[in-house]
Every structure is written in C-alpha cells, then in structure tokens.
Task: structure prediction
Amino acid sequence: MKWNEVSSEQCSVARVSAVLGDRWTLVILSECFLGVRRFEHFKERLDIPRTTLSTRLQRLEDHGVLERRLYQEGPDRHEYRLTPKGVALYPVLSTIVTWGDTYYSDEAGPPILRKHVECGHDIQPVLACPECRNDITPRQMSARKRPDGPGQQPVRRGPITG
Amino acid sequence: MKWNEVSSEQCSVARVSAVLGDRWTLVILSECFLGVRRFEHFKERLDIPRTTLSTRLQRLEDHGVLERRLYQEGPDRHEYRLTPKGVALYPVLSTIVTWGDTYYSDEAGPPILRKHVECGHDIQPVLACPECRNDITPRQMSARKRPDGPGQQPVRRGPITG
Result:
C-alpha cells in the first residue's frame, strides 16, 4: 500500500469540502440549478431558517459560486445567480442525483426524470474518459503526485475499493 | 418559471445530503478511495478527533456505504471497506476533485494527477451521455417529474444557470 504518499488533504477534496461540505449548501445549489434565484423562494421551497439560508448564500457568494445581482431598486432587492464557477458544479450535483436515484428512490423509480435534450433520451449522465470516450470505473484510475512535487512515483494502480 | 413544480426536496439531493453533507464525510470517503481502511490510519492522515471520526464512520456504515470487516482477533480489530454502494460514489468524489483542481489549485496545477490506466492518458473524467456519448452541459439537460406522479408536463428546458 502506497496510500501514505497521496493524501486527500493535499488533493482537492479537503479544499472543496470547506465550500460544499454542508447539507444545506448542497440542497441550495440544487435549487440554483433548477433556476431558483431569490431569497424568499429558497426559503419557501426549502423551509430553511432565514439565518441558515443567509449564512449559506453568503458563503457561496464569498467563494465566487454565486453572485448577487440587483433586480429591483427602492427597496433594493437582489437575486443569486450561479457564476461560471458555480455552473461548473453541475457534474457534482448531477452525480449526487444519480447516486441518490440508485440507492434512495422508492420502488416506482427516481422522483425526477432527466432528459438529454440534444439526443432526446432520458438518461443518467455517466463518467467518461475525454480521451478514449469509454466509461470510467474507479479501478481503471490511478493517482500520483504531480511530477514537480516531492515523490514522483505512481502511488497506486486503482484504488482499493472493497 | 416552472421551478415550483420540481423541488430538490423531492429529488435525490436532499436524501443524499443527509449522508454526504458534511465536510469530514467527504474527506473520509476520499481516503477510502485511496485505499485507507483502518481507524488509526484515517485518524493519523486526517488529524481528526477520535469521536468525530468514529461518528462519521458509524454513519457511513449505517447507510451501507462502508462495512466493517474483522482483520485481527484478540483483540478484535476491524477495517472499513467500501461496499458496492460506496464504490458507486466514485463519480461524486471524482467530480469534486475535478472542480477543486480547476478552482483551488495553485499556479503549478493540480496537486495530484489522475491517469485513465485503460488508455494511458492523464485525464479529468467528464460527464457524458450514455446514449449519444457526447459531453453534457447543464443547459442540455431538462428535468421533469416522473410521469406517474402528479404533474406530468416538462418543468424546464435546461436550468437557468447564470
């Protein structure tokens, strides 16, 4: 085992979990991808305490995931829009939905169907290799430190997954 | 706007966030995919309080994401292994890493490189359509309630993303 050479502290998960690692934050982001923008709408739909919602939106704004835009003056009212960095979270939310659909749906199936409008099929997006276009499984992936960092050798051939 | 017809409470995000919506949980899962299995190893690598680690591992076990297996008797010692349901979280962790690599790397690039062993390329996995094999962007996806539920009409054509 060489896992002692690669730490998730070094990798991106720890950094990202500081932004996303919160139950409400994931649900708020999901609402954003459904087109929800306004404080009162988030609040009504999620039945979330005002302070909790306010804190989470502020943090997402601080991290550049959402931006506030004025949509009404006197009194000023803002709405929350996904920035490009926020839109780039779509694969994260999408894979969460897929996992939830697989393991947390009732017997009738997923509560929401997703269609790939481009080809017209109801699908669940898959993880693919941008080079060979094949589906990716965890055992086909290896991880190593960046060559200019300390410790250049490959650290594993596929994770140990079970 | 028809977002009032689809709620993320109905969809899988709320259910999943009860399992994953925690900073430590995401980092612990990332360690699992690197092959870490033992309590003391998680503890050393993450510098996490024992009680916090214990609680998180127990919850992942309760949800069937990890299972404990005996690896030593007298005294009995267990290790934590990803179940198939746990392995199925790979796309979630992978897309989190990709997003973190994009927005939280230092100037030299991502701290860890990932290789698709099957084709030999260093890659970041992408989200693809299993039918047409094209890459997926959020604007190409639509969502609607399951036809046998209340409200059968499509609720949007692509999320409003900015």
In short: Chain A touches chain B through 107 residues (CB under 8 Å).
